[in-house]
Structures are given as structure tokens and as C-alpha cells.
Amino acid sequence: MKASFILAVGLTWVSAAMGSRCKPSSVSSSVSSVSSPPVSSTVSSVSSVSSASSSASASATCSGNFIVDGDFSDNKLPPAWTVSGTGNAEVNPNCYAHGVSCAHLETGPTSVAISQVVTTVSGTIYDISFSYFILAASKNPTLTVLQDGVVVETIQLNVGPTHTWIQAPVVQVTATGTQTTISFSVNAVPGGEGNIQLANIGMCAYS
């Protein structure tokens, strides 16, 4: 009788010990799996998708060149380019490298621009690329890129290195019609000066 009582008590103690040892382990594992995805990573992924939708996909290819005489090899601006403003605009031969010509834009108190009407497809995204060379800059002149008269890029000419060719950041635009006017304008204030060269102007399209 005493032996069976001791055996029963022993079995009860072993069962309780095993239950208390296993139970916390399973609760801890379940809590860990529920709380593992951090809120911040979910917000970050949504944000990155949203920002990517406003520009061309990283996997898309930009091809073609819709600018006529972007290397200024005709050695004259019209008829490919239209000149406006009160400054001076002309083509300089062999001013870039390896015989490549460039456009020379110089203005005093106002502005001078060259522009071209490009055949486009409405809704299509285009990349505009070009190089520029600062000959002189005083009193904060700017080089602006315009789409249909609206400024889409502004470059401060007084903060860049002079007398060296600079590859400008790519300017991305979305066409709103079958014709798009692309302009490059040098702008100066009274008493100031903007004097630059432009070369290798290109415009490709994403499809």
C-alpha cells in the first residue's frame, strides 16, 4: 500500500514537471513567430513602390535619339535650332573633342536660348542628356532646361568648375502631346554674365 502510494505520487510529480517544462517553450515560439515582421519594413516597401511609379521602370530601356543635330555637326544653329533672347548664340567647330562641334551661348543682363520642336508620343517618358562647359559666370547665372516653356531643370553656373566639360544630370520629362519644345537657356542678371558651351544633346524614349 505504501509502495503504491509512493509510486502514484512520483508519477504525478514527473507529469507536472514535464508539463511545466514544455508549456512555456511552445508559448514563446508562437509569440516569436507572430511578432517577427517589423512594422517599419512594411512601410518602407510601400514607400519605395510609390516613388518608383512616378518615373520610368529601372528595367525599361531608353532608346533612340529624337534631337536633330544635337552634336551641332551642321556648324550652324537654324534650321534645326531656333535662337531667342538678346544674347549671342552660335556654333563653334571642334570645341569639344575629336572634332565635335558645340553651341556657344553668351548673355549679359538678360537671357539667350536655343530650342527645338521634337516629335513625341503623348504619355511617353523621355530622358534628355547633354554636356556643358562654363567659360564665365558672374552674379549667379543659370542654365535652364525647359519643356514647352516650363523649367524642368536649373543648373547654377557659378558653383560648377570652369573650363572643363561637365556631364549634366539626366533630365526626365513626360510628353503631353505629339510635339514637345525642348529649350536650353542661359540667364543672367544686370551686371552679370553667363557664357557657356553645349554639346552632345540627346533625347531617348522609354518603351
From TrEMBL:
Signal peptide: 1-19
Source organism per UniProt: Sporothrix schenckii 1099-18
Alphabetized Gene3D superfamilies for the sequence: Galactose-binding domain-like (2.60.120.260)
Domain of life: Eukaryota
Protein name as it appears in the record: CBM-cenC domain-containing protein
Keywords of the record: Signal
SUPFAM superfamilies in UniProt: Galactose-binding domain-like (SSF49785)
